[in-house]
Amino acid sequence: MADTPLASTSSDSSGEGGGNGDLAAVQRLRDAHQRILGELGKVIVGQERVLEELMIALFAGGHCILEGVPGLAKTLMISTLAKSLSLTFSRIQFTPDLMPSDITGTEVIQEDKATGSRTFRFLPGPVFANVILADEINRTPPKTQAALLEAMQERQVTVGGKRNPLAPPFFVLATQNPIEQEGTYPLPEAQQDRFMFKVFVGYPTYEEEMRIAEVTSADIAAARETIPAVFGAGEVLALQEIVRRVPAARHVVGHAVDLVRRTRPSEEQASPLIKRMVNWGAGPRAVQFIVQAAKARAILRGRHHVSTDDVRAVTHPVLRHRIVPNFSAEAEGYTTDRIIDELLATTAPNETALTQDDRLQKVLET
């Protein structure tokens, strides 16, 4: 069933009608976005881009991989974001000896002392929370990594033949350390494809690092305790539903499709660079994630429609873990981000493909 677009008018002047209610929610989300960033700024120094990409993925209903060296406050960032949204938070430290049941939970035998009968009872694992921090996910073998697959895709866990649904919203943030690769198990491409974003957490600037050095850990802990809850789980779900209804013009969706198809070296429209540097390009799920993330970005910025700028802004985090460069790219120093830069530079929005309705929308936007 097609999504119902956001309405701009309503006969209900009280604001409780569908159109005014949606627009009021969009305005509230934009205001709350700025407030959340302000509150997080009391604890997290810098990293505005990372925080924005996390919030885009959250309200688009996706999962994230965070890659960065140790000490960049990835765990603090995630736990503080969960606190500001009044969501339950669970951290799983992935190690080589971690078992799937350590994540999903297990069944235990429970004896009724009155009757002496024994029954199986399910003990939920740490995956039963709203925000899951999968810390150093590449430190555990593939069978344990795969324990998250069903939870991420189906929002449920099957144990002993019984399906146990996970309470929405459900958001997995997996961290990776790019420095040390000895004794690690890279995520399979099929599992990486379940993550909406791959977010790079970089070093702070000089000024930011000075601020970090000036702030004591005690001050950070005290500031974190005073962060108010801006949203509850129910409000997050309602806003995720509104994001899905944000209209996207045909030429905007077409631009997302063009970008993804041009990452595949077998396609005619792929550039010579892609054909020479890439083994495998992104699949159809990348188009879905780009459009969904672009909708969330537009809403967070207070707009009720998606533009091609939104599509291009989320292209890096969506595509960087879906493009598989070949040996030639590695030999010439072409990272996936550099390949995506070239892709964006050579793929302009197809403005000539606008329909009459699209042209009217573009006039209204300006």
List its salient traits.
alpha/beta; Rossmann fold; five-stranded parallel β-sheet; two-stranded antiparallel sheet
Write the layout of secondary structure elements.
Elements: H1 18-40, H2 48-60, E1 64-67, H3 74-84, E2 89-93, H4 100-104, E3 105-111, E4 118-124, E5 131-135, H5 142-145, H6 147-154, E6 156-159, E7 162-165, E8 171-176, H7 189-192, E9 197-200, H8 206-214, H9 217-225, H10 233-244, H11 250-261, H12 272-277, E10 278-280, H13 284-300, H14 308-313, H15 315-319, E11 324-325, H16 327-331, H17 336-346, H18 356-365
Parallel strand pairs: 1-8, 1-9, 2-5, 5-8
Antiparallel strand pairs: 3-4, 6-7, 10-11
Q: Briefly note the structural class of the backbone.
A: alpha/beta
Which term fits the overall shape?
Answer: globular
Strand arrangement in the largest pleated sheet: 2-5-8-1-9
Radius of gyration from the alpha-carbon trace, in angstroms? 22 Å
Number of domains: 1
Largest sheet: 5 strands, parallel
> What is the CATH H-level superfamily?
P-loop containing nucleotide triphosphate hydrolases
Helix content: 40-55%
Assign the CATH class. Answer: Alpha Beta
Element order, helices and strands? HHEHEHEEEHHEEEHEHHHHHEHHHEHHH
In the CATH classification, which architecture applies?
3-Layer(aba) Sandwich
Query: What is the CATH topology assignment?
Result: Rossmann fold
Number of helices: 18
Multimeric status of the protein: single chain
